[in-house]
TrEMBL record, chain A:
GO terms for biological process: iron-sulfur cluster assembly. Residues 183-412 form the SUF system FeS cluster assembly SufBD core domain. It comes from the Bacteria. It holds the Pfam family SUFBD_core. It comes from Chitinophaga arvensicola. This is Iron-regulated ABC transporter permease protein SufD. Residues 26-174 form the SUF system FeS cluster assembly SufBD N-terminal domain.
UniProtKB/TrEMBL annotation, chain B:
This is Iron-regulated ABC transporter membrane component SufB. InterPro entries: Fe-S_cluster_assembly_SufBD (IPR055346), SUF_FeS_clus_asmbl_SufB (IPR010231), SUF_FeS_clus_asmbl_SufBD_core (IPR000825), SUF_FeS_clus_asmbl_SufBD_sf (IPR037284), SufBD_N (IPR045595). Residues 210-451 form the SUF system FeS cluster assembly SufBD core domain. Pfam families: SUFBD_core, SufBD_N. One of its GO terms (biological process) is iron-sulfur cluster assembly. NCBIfam families: PRK11814.1 (NF008773), sufB (TIGR01980). Belongs to the iron-sulfur cluster assembly SufBD family. Residues 48-202 form the SUF system FeS cluster assembly SufBD N-terminal domain.
Length: 439, 481
């Protein structure tokens, strides 16, 4: 059910779906139109999330959607080279993929080349095997109305497919530029497929250069990690005051694969919601989900994760840490579902929070749902302050209060930053954290 | 004229014909839930006008509500109109000696170590002169009265202490709280009322008395316990003996109020009929239990051992309103066959320096489904609040389920909250170790389970702790091997 207040917005969206087919004919094939129509139907059945939607009980998305008169934006505008360059991670030797509102800008990108590497716009790859097999295949997307909306409305995105045994030699830096001249609602859609024995490291950052117009991105990324493949995915949400984001990642892993996901949410963006789900479709997999969120002012950061243990003998580790400053709100939901067949599962989850702002708050729902008996599963949660002893220790050695705090936050986030395997990126993140704490 | 005379004669004869038992028949309300029934119940109990109005308000709230959908089990179909909401206590079939009792039941009693006289009381065997429950009760009552403790049935309290009842009834669990609480408010039959005056430490476990006397309290019981300043009371409801009951739905309400420096310890041992192997029959135990720590440095502690019922669905909660007040929740929930437990607690930290501790131990066997669902919320005023939560689950057999759904909300930066949950099965190495020392698998499991739940059982009054331990072993019999 769509609530009354959001109705005009919703009606506009329905019209947009019909208009879309004319704009990007490649993404309006019969099959895709059918998928889009079904997604829209599904969206209108579940409706926009409300506070009564269990998965959204601590996040009022309608509040953010109603904040400005958003219009659906499906096109890209040229973005100055220096804007793109400003996102570069110092001393990182990498390939660069520039996407403006989800549309690939080939002339500003340095794409990896070589046998077995397919990288390009979704609209240019609708006949690729990976696209045909895996597009919109993730069941977890069906339950999420924002993802359904994306399926119905997406205009383009990044398609990556690595053939079997293909290893990309350098990290791929995906620069998501969201650029608009009026308040815009943007729907990028990506699909990354790593076939058997393939490996890649992908770093995502985003930038919204305008300050007067608000960009609301509702992006969906599907990743497929096939047998014995390995994907390192870093998503760095640096944020801007004029940016809002719902980011849905649905991953699936097959036999013997490794998937490492890092999510860094840094201050400024008033509203961030990250949906992350991993479906384990093969045995003997390894999954590491790491998250660090540092929120300030009235920022609202919601991390919603779902580990779906379908097959036996899989390991998953999840660690999310949060630092909540000023009047920020943090939300964490971590669900581990172990199916009856998934014996010998090891699944661990930890969520630690530092509440530093007087009006900051944290709502957490770590969940275990277990139907197999030969498993080891646990979750842990903490919320609190620096220990007085540690603060006293630092202060007694002549370190000022602010510097001591910055040091402690650095130490607190170390578990996450230490796991970053790209040295330049690790250094960059540590600098960012230090800078936030010094301001 | 002749006709009407005949009718009059008929009626006269009928009354004569049925004699004494007619009275009981008349005390039975027809099935159905409506305002008339509520008025009927209220009139039968000779209740004051305000109580009737409160019942009607509860009914009005009930009519507006729907059954919840968020629980982790399929809601059984309940036809609330098919129930009869008032029945005078039924006469139990009196047996002459224990020889007539079901031998299986006696074997269970023997394993639990229940004294012979209590066995008789529980099975409805006529009690001999040596063990006169009435006189025991009178002795207890006299002692309590001396100290100013009020402990009586709810109906009695309404008649004799209307001011206290009026002041506190619905103050912790309002009639609008949830659909079952609303239903209970409308039709509650009876229950217990306890008031501990200022500075009094209740000299005995109120359970002892309760256990002998308060049988058949009915399916919509209501308990209200008030501990005034600096007082202490320990209360135990239920018993370890398997209880069979004709009422399938139990929607009780328990309200606890602790004033300054008062402490209430509430223990529950629940072993209602769980239904057969396929989960047919069995009690639905949908209870609303909540306590409020109103005064400074007050304390409420819930301890529960839940082994029975087809569905156990309850969240004994504590509102920590007074500064430096303390809430505790200790729980053992065991499910086997097709039993379901969705239980846990809610702790609301409102006052400064409030503390809470939650220890939940779930055991799932067979095709049972066990969920811990809990809320810890810390309000902006609750400076230096402290919470520790641990919920562990033990899985026995590969068809059971065990789930944890905690909700943690912190709005205060000085609060410290810790939550920990683990799920695992009994290690094969542990079983092997004990087997190798000549302990058979069944006893091994009992031993490990008892170690696992010790932290909770230690909170029970001593004699019940021993029984509860035995109860767990019996419940899990045949689950392994």
């Amino acid at each position: 059910m769509t609530s009354d207040m959001i109705l005009p917005f919703y009606q506009a969206l329905t019209e947009d779906v019909n208009a879309l087919s004319a704009q990007v004919p490649a993404l309006a094939t019969d099959t895709l139109q059918d998928i889009r129509r079904k997604a829209l139907e599904r969206f209108s059945t579940i409706g926009l999330p409300t506070l009564k939607t269990e998965a959204w009980r601590y996040t009022n998305i309608q509040r953010y959607l109603k904040e400005f008169p958003y219009e659906l934006l499906t096109t890209a505008a040229a973005v100055a080279e220096d804007v793109v360059n400003s996102t570069a991670i110092p001393e990182l030797d990498c390939y660069r993929v520039v996407l403006v509102n989800g549309h690939l800008q080939a002339d500003q990108s340095t794409l990896p080349e070589g046998k077995g590497i397919t990288i390009g716009a979704m609209s240019a790859n609708t006949t690729a095997t990976g696209f045909v097999t895996y597009f919109n295949e993730q069941q977890h997307l069906a339950a999420e109305s924002m993802a359904q909306l994306n399926t119905a409305l997406f205009a383009d995105g990044l398609y990556i497919e690595l053939a079997a045994n293909t290893v990309v030699d350098k990290p791929i830096h995906v620069v998501n530029v969201y650029s608009c001249t009026a308040h815009a609602f943007i729907q990028p859609r990506h699909l990354w497929v790593l076939n058997r024995n393939a490996a890649a490291t992908i770093i995502e950052t985003s930038i919204h250069p305008e300050t007067a117009t608000i960009a609301f991105a509702n992006s969906v990324l599907e990743t497929v990690v096939m047998e014995n493949a390995e994907l390192w995915h870093y998503n760095i949400q640096q944020g801007a005051e004029s940016f809002r984001e719902v980011h849905t990642t649905a991953a699936q892993q097959h036999k013997d694969s490794r998937y490492h996901h890092f999510n860094f949410t840094l201050p400024n963006t008033p509203f961030t919601r990250n949906n992350l789900s991993v479906a384990l479709k093969g045995s003997h997999t390894e999954t590491n989900l790491n998250g660090l969120y540092i929120a300030s002012k009235h920022q609202h950061v919601d991390n919603h994760t779902f580990m779906d243990h379908i097959m036996p003998d899989c390991n998953s580790n999840e660690l999310y840490k949060g630092v909540l400053l000023d009047s920020s709100n943090g939300v964490f939901t971590g669900k581990i579902l172990v199916h009856q067949e998934a014996q010998k599962t090891n699944a661990f989850q930890q969520n630690n929070n530092l509440l530093l702002g007087t009006k900051a708050d944290i709502n957490s729902q770590p969940q275990l749902e277990i139907y197999a008996d030969d498993v080891k599963c646990s979750h842990g949660f903490t919320a609190g302050q620096f220990s007085e002893e540690s603060m006293f220790y630092l202060r007694s050695r002549g370190i000022g209060e602010d510097a001591a705090k910055a040091l402690m936050v650095n130490a607190f986030s170390h578990d996450i930053t230490d796991a970053v395997k790209v040295p330049a990126l690790q250094h960059f993140l540590q600098e960012q954290i230090a800078e936030i704490m010094n301001n | 004229m002749i006709n009407s005379n005949e009718i009059i004669d008929d009626i006269a004869n009928k009354e004569y014909e049925f004699g004494f038992s007619t009275d009981i028949e008349m005390d039975m309300a027809p099935p159905g839930l409506n305002e008339d029934i509520i008025r009927f119940i209220s009139a039968k109990k000779n209740e004051p006008e305000w109580l009737l109005e409160w019942r009607l308000k509860g009914f009005a709230a009930f009519k507006k509500m729907e059954f919840p959908k968020w629980q982790h089990f399929e809601m059984p179909e309940l036809d609330l109109q098919a129930l009869s909401y008032y029945a005078a206590p039924k006469k139990k079939v009196q047996l002459n000696s224990l020889d007539e009792v079901d031998p299986e039941l006696l074997a269970t009693f023997a394993k639990l170590g229940i004294p012979l006289n209590e066995q008789k009381a529980l099975t409805g065997v006529a009690v001999d002169a040596v063990f006169d429950s009435v006189s025991v009760a009178t002795t207890f009552k006299g002692k309590l009265k001396e100290m100013g403790v009020i402990f009586c049935s709810f109906g009695e309290a309404v008649q004799e202490h209307p001011d206290l009842v009026k002041k506190y009834l619905g103050s912790v669990v309002p009639h609008t709280d949830n659909i079952f609480a609303a239903l209970n408010a409308a039709v509650f039959s009876d229950g217990s009322f306890v008031y501990i005056p200022k500075g009094v430490r209740c000299p005995m476990e109120l359970s002892t008395y309760f256990r002998i006397n308060a049988q058949n309290t009915g399916q919509f019981e209501r308990t209200l316990i008030i501990a005034d300043d600096n007082s202490y009371v320990s209360y135990l409801e239920g018993c370890t003996a398997p209880m069979r009951d004709e009422n399938q739905l139990h929607a009780a309400v328990v309200e606890l109020v602790a004033m300054e420096h008062a402490e209430i310890k509430y223990s529950t041992v629940q072993n209602w009929y769980p239904g057969d192997k396929d989960g047919k029959g069995g009690i639905y135990n949908f209870v609303t239990k909540r306590g409020i720590c109103k005064g400074t440095a007050s304390k409420i502690s819930w301890t529960q051992v839940e082994t029975g019922s087809a569905i156990t669905w309850k969240y004994p909660s504590v509102i920590l309103q007074g500064d430096h007040s303390e809430g505790e929740f200790y729980s053992v929930a065991v499910v086997r066959n097709k039993q379901i437990a969705d239980t846990g607690t809610k702790i609301h930290h409102i006052g400064k320096g409030t503390k809470s501790r939650i220890i939940s131990k779930g055991i799932s066997a067979g095709r049972g489904d066990n969920s811990y669902r809990g809320l810890v919320s810390v309000g902006p005023r609750a400076d230096n609040a402290r919470n520790f939560t641990q919920c562990d689950s033990l899985l026995i057999g590969n068809q059971c389920g065990s789930h944890t759904f905690p909700y943690i909300e912190s709005r205060n930066k000085t609060a410290m909250i810790e939550h920990e949950a683990t799920t695992s099965k009994i290690g094969e190495d542990q079983i092997f170790y004990l087997n190798q020392r000549g302990i058979d698998s069944e006893k091994t499991v009992a031993l490990i389970v008892n170690g696992y739940v010790k932290e909770v059982l230690n909170q029970l009054p001593m004699e019940f702790a021993v029984e509860a331990q035995k109860l767990l072993s019996i419940t899990l019999e045949g689950s392994v091997g």
